[in-house]
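STRUCTURE:
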């Protein structure tokens, strides 16, 4: 994911399928905020990071 791919909608960061596999935090984010964790999207294409609680939606 790069900054040009980030859209914020209804408190979600919108993620493209081309950004998979997806992890939090991203390189652009503070890498010291928490350990890097790969996230799996649910059936509604939504996931929340277990460390920082940031919400992501797959578009």
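SEQUENCE:
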């Amino acid at each position: 994911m790069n900054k040009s791919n980030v859209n914020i909608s209804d408190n979600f960061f919108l993620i493209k399928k081309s950004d998979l596999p997806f992890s939090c935090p991203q390189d652009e984010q503070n890498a010291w905020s928490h350990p890097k964790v790969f996230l799996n999207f649910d059936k509604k294409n939504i996931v929340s990071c277990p460390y920082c609680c940031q919400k992501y939606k797959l578009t």
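REMARK: The mean pLDDT is 84.
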